[in-house]
Amino acid sequence: MEIAWIGTGIMGAPMARNLMRAGHRLRVHNRTAKKAVALAAEGSEVIVAADPAAAAGGAEAVFMMVPDTPDVESVVARIAPALHKDQLVIDMSTIAPAAEHAIAERLAKAGVDYLDAPVSGGEAGAIDGTLTIMVGGAESAYKRAFPLFEKLGRRVTHMGPPGAGQMTKLANQVAVALTLEAAAEALALAESGGLDRARVLEAIGAGAAGSWQLSNLGPKIIAHDWRPGFFIKLIRKDLRLVADAARAGGLALPGLALMQSMFNAAAAFGHDLDGTQAVAAALDRLARLK
Ligand code: NAP
User: Fold this and answer.
1) Which of 29, 137, 189, 269 could make a disulfide contact with 49, Cβ separation 3.0–4.6 Å?
2) Among this protein's residues, is 237 annotated catalytic?
3) Which structural domain range is residue 270 located in?
4) 65 C-alpha vs ligand 1 centroid, how far in Å?
5) Same-domain status, 204 and 155
6) Which atom of ligand 1 has the smallest separation from the CA of 123?
7) For ligand 1, is residue 277 a contact (CB within 6 Å)?
8) Of 161, 190, 216, at which residue does a domain stop?
9) CB under 8 Å to 56, separation ≥6 — which residues?
10) Structure confidence by residue, pLDDT tens digits, 145-177
11) pTM summary value
């Protein structure tokens, strides 16, 4: 299949690579061109497109993996004139559910199928093709996209109409943020009690305290390895989207408020471009009584 991929960052590059390895022809575009150029150097079936419209025109499926709502809206504005009937556009970024609804309606008028399909599973899941994919949009479009999703993820679920994928992802992010805080606090307590934190991870990781956050980010917290798999600035964006959705639903989420404070503190301490595990560095500065 001829596929356009727009946004080849931490997640987009390995995801596009998995489609390339599955035998698809790719046209890749990234705002900072060198990331797309590096990807294209890996395969003869990949070419770099100078702008989003050049990537999208003629492709059977067009993927977007960019940071935030305004980024998706600006890419859609640029590709829309190049799109034609029966093309399939899939947004895998995490953005506002209402924006997906509006984009789906707009593209439907041109006969273009649109899906919101945000993911969970981090950089490792993107590399291994084991992402969790939460999809919103028409059933017929979902069926068309399914063989592509299968190359990117392990658990693919059609959640409902446009925006339902994003709403599911926002629920996911509440659980992600709070389990990360739980992991960071557990390891801080273990250290203050004189324990070897690596042994603590071994001991409790497979029990009731086990979580993706504890087993994947726990070792990084112990090593003070703050290199990004998922930027603090992006989880702050996600929790802003969660707060908007909670407000719209008339819901107060106390744990969300705590996590917004923690990630804002991490940003204030200079960690916005570090990985989410750097919330442990903020905890370290805020929580030590002696
Ligand atoms: P990232 O590394 O910042 O990648 C985003 C890419 O999009 C960058 O390469 C950026 O280019 C490019 N971009 C931005 N605006 C663009 C535009 N208008 N046209 C073309 N390219 C554009 O971020 P990421 O971690 O891959 O995250 C991407 C999305 O996935 C976000 O919505 C994030 O919340 C979500 N997500 C991330 C993770 C994770 O663990 N990282 C997990 C699940 C979901 P530049 O090089 O110019 O910045």
Assistant:
1) 29
2) no
3) 167-287
4) 6
5) no
6) 40
7) no
8) 161
9) 4, 6, 62, 79, 82, 83, 87, 89
10) 999 999 999 999 999 999 999 999 999 999 999
11) 0.96
